[in-house]
UniProtKB/TrEMBL annotation, chains A, B:
Name of the protein described by the UniProt record: Octaprenyl-diphosphate synthase
InterPro entries, alphabetized: Isoprenoid_synthase_dom_sf, Polyprenyl_synt, Polyprenyl_synt_CS
KW Transferase (keyword) present: yes
UniProt keyword terms in alphabetical order: Magnesium, Metal-binding, Transferase
Keyword hit for Iron: no
Cross-referenced PROSITE patterns: POLYPRENYL_SYNTHASE_1, POLYPRENYL_SYNTHASE_2
Gene3D superfamilies: Farnesyl Diphosphate Synthase (1.10.600.10)
Gene assigned in the entry: ispB
Listed GO biological process terms: isoprenoid biosynthetic process
Protein origin, superkingdom: Bacteria
Length: 337, 337
């Protein structure tokens, strides 16, 4: 499947090479700061933090913070601290998420809670969130503090919402989009909005980069939802089929349920309410998703948000930062191929 | 048992009446703000938050923030937001603590995790912590932000430390004091230090109120440790004997272990490592604590920290705030009687 036209303009094969190259010098400092701020005399903290850090996330969010600051000509060094804060907020969320979802794998490796237990995962998550705030406070930019602290509230709110909506088949597409806007897209939006804030680029620039991050985050999550049914564990960084096995409601399921017969609706209700689904049920789920084009439709939604993100970043003057930001959109969507 | 002399100067029967009266107008606003900031369209959030809010903690920490601001002549309204932040930080910690300790009761009522599950407790804790930061950011005072965000890191660090130290009988008195300084006293210290910060009373006043809060927090926790073996569930706000039943290492246990025979040492090791102790074991534990004067010795330590807190607040000029702060010290220690 190829990505629709404007997203395709960027480069022949979508990749994050451009943003990696653009942000490499700053990301060296971000990584050093992450290691330093994950340090503690309490040995368990750096142990768990380094497990997460070394387990090879792409560091997409902090790269976006760096790139969005550079895109507006920022020449200071505070973007490093904010980027590290964003990554810590993300890592804290992952730790707590794994506890909440009872996940065994994270990025293809055993999750922290499986090795050190739920207790340590909760508390080390709290530690990292606290360190994130300390770094933001160090920067001392109140607008950035407001944006990032608001994101932390919205993310938690989204997670609680998902908890209550997770098993309800009455959750429709619009509700689901609100959940992922909160739990995933809000951090992307905050990560990219603080760039122009640091560069003092004005409210219009801020709104533009917020729109970029928000739509990118929505596209990113929807592609993740599709990959859970179609991808490989390697591409996804966790077991495929996990969402279904755990009875998690995602957009493909919502669409297949809506479009399904009464018998199929009953299948989805049973699968989501039961929560412990076997491989045979997963095969049946994939068959129904295929029959109703639910994965295709989800990809189409993702592409729609990708277009919006692309449009927001297109307004930037031509520069390596602009190219990097545009490429990220194409990359996120191309993961389904 | 009566409290040693200087602490006794304040009033005939130690109570928090003075601080309650002093802070009543501001605490009305704090309570309104707490309710407002616990609000959310996600119904589960206000439900859990109100469960905690209505379960009748004394709100000692926010009262301390208000009183410590008033003690330095503060006339603004930002102390209300910081006090609400402090209470939210505390509530978030309680929610996560109950998950980590697998507690059934909190303040004499069923704990949130028993009603809504661990998942919701983790996530609503995250929500409240995020709201705490938002309120601090609203105040826009970077020193206060630094003090409170640092406290959030230190608390989490202390909790992780306790997790690893909890079952190790090699943890000595000095190590244990460091743990409770982090997990309990750090928030008291931050709560009282931000008062003079708001009042712009200068670094000496800040240091004084920090010392007051820190020592008060240490005394408070040690008295809690004693009450777990000697108090009533009503005075403690949770089941007595819980620490022992869960195999939690506290100062009375450390002292009884140190002073015990080899057979007694083996009893404590077994009890703490096993972690699931019955009523017969609890009776034996109480007998050993009594034999070695471990509870008395812990109260003496608490009284020592109380004296220091008292000394720090004594430096204030005579005022209703000074009386209120001094009374709180006597009250905290008098709980063992």
């Amino acid at each position: 499947m190829s990505v629709a036209s404007p997203v395709r303009e960027t480069s022949s094969k979508a990749s994050i090479d451009a943003i990696v190259a653009l942000t490499a010098p700053a990301m060296g400092e971000v990584n050093a700061m992450i290691l330093a701020m994950a340090g503690s005399n309490v040995a368990l903290i750096p142990e768990i933090a380094e497990h997460l850090i070394s387990s090879g996330g792409k560091r997409l969010r902090p790269m976006l913070t760096i790139a969005s600051a550079l895109a507006y000509g920022y020449r200071g060094s505070d973007h490093v601290k904010l980027a590290a804060s964003v990554e810590f907020m993300h890592t804290a969320t992952l730790l707590h998420d794994d506890v909440v979802d009872e996940s065994d794998l994270r990025r293809g490796k055993q999750s922290a809670r499986m090795i050190w237990g739920n207790q340590a995962s909760v508390l080390v998550g709290d530690f990292l969130l606290g360190q994130a705030f300390r770094m933001m406070v160090d920067v001392g930019e109140l607008s950035a503090l407001r944006i990032l602290s608001t994101a932390s509230v919205v993310i938690a709110e989204g997670e609680v919402w998902q908890l209550s909506a997770a098993k309800r088949m009455t959750t429709g597409e619009a509700d689901y989009l609100k959940v992922i806007e909160a739990k995933t897209a809000a951090l992307f939006a905050a990560a990219t909005e603080v760039g122009p804030v640091l560069a003092e680029a004005g409210p219009e620039a801020q709104a533009q980069m917020r729109a970029y991050g928000l739509n990118l985050g929505l596209a990113f999550q929807l592609v993740d939802d599709v990959l859970d049914y179609r991808g490989t564990a390697q591409a996804l960084g966790k077991n495929t089929g996990d969402d279904f096995r755990e009875g998690k409601l995602t957009l493909p399921v919502i669409l297949a349920h809506q479009r399904g017969s009464e018998a199929e609706k009953a299948f989805w209700r049973g699968a989501l309410e039961g929560g412990e689904n076997d491989d045979a049920a997963l095969l049946e789920a994939k068959r129904l998703l295929e029959r109703h084009g639910a994965l295709e439709a989800t990809v189409a939604r993702a592409r729609g948000f990708g277009e919006k993100a692309f449009g927001a970043a297109s307004a930037l003057p031509a520069s390596p930062s602009r190219t990097a930001l545009l490429d990220v959109v194409a990359f996120c969507i191309d993961r389904v191929n």
